[in-house]
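Data availability (excerpt). The following record was deposited with the supplementary files.
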Amino acid sequence: MKTKILVYGVLGYTGGLFLKHALEKNLPIVLGAREAGLKQVAETLGMEYRVFDIDDPQTIAPNLSDLKAVVNLANIDYGVNKHLIDACIQAKTHYVDLAAECPDVMGIFKLHHAALANGVMLMPGAGFNLVTTDLAAMIASKLLDDPTELALGFATFGKASRGTIRSVLRMATETGYSRIKGKLVASDSASKEHSFRADGKEYRLINNSLMGDVITSFFSTNIQNITAYSYYPWILVQFMKGRMNWLRKLLIQYSHWFFPLGPSSDELRKQHTYSWAQVRNNQNQKMTVLIKGPQAYLFTVKAIGSIVSEISRNNTNPGFTPPSYYGRNWIERIEGVQITVLNE
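Predicted structure:
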């Protein structure tokens, strides 16, 4: 029986935070990365490790034969990850990653039937971005009879990691999707606004059509009309509207100069996040679910740690599986999470 769970990409910012969390929680993991420097890190910690690249299917397969699951923290781009995902399906190894953008989640969703046939769980969106909105959407969808519209989004505060900033800047001008009458419809970001209140303050969001909520939350709720929103700084909203493209390209090119590797330990401890979902039905009844939680990167590593624990207990679901599969009780067990239901 396969028992090992490999966490790939532990030398990056998020991977390093997760490794610290895994050691504190004594999680049963094997370390993975493409960089040879992993050897020294793993041997210092006395942990098993695998060094391999995910660009070539031939180098991937030998590393999966004894693995129950792979948790990929290294990349969120489906085009880069596809060889690894295909190899996991063939090896009957569950696959989890942080993919949150619509194109990446859509790519994984298209592998649903192949994964289902091999009994393999594919769970993208296992980080803060989609874990919280997917759970909020699932909870909200059960509060009204026949909900027809779902709006959902998140707000984070403070610094982002250099890798996150590069990814957001690269995709800022791409066309994404909303879901209308059950169909995915091309939609420009930053063309709509919504707001929510939390802790006595109002937060104004702009629609973020690149978020994969239109796939995961549709899968979780079957609500036919879905729009995803995000709380972003003014400058990023301008980029999403196609303005100051020269500056966006400059920031991408010199991100290693302009941005720190990630938030400091003190910033991680002091910051928090909100995730929000509102459902509406044809009688214009509305219900809102608000999830307050720890800082986004801390939320991500805690969520991943909890998913690793669930997989180690054989709590998996074949095929494409949104994080809401694990349910409200699961997310409420994550330290620092508070769920509020508002009848509007």
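Summary of structural features: The two ends are 50 Å apart (CA to CA).
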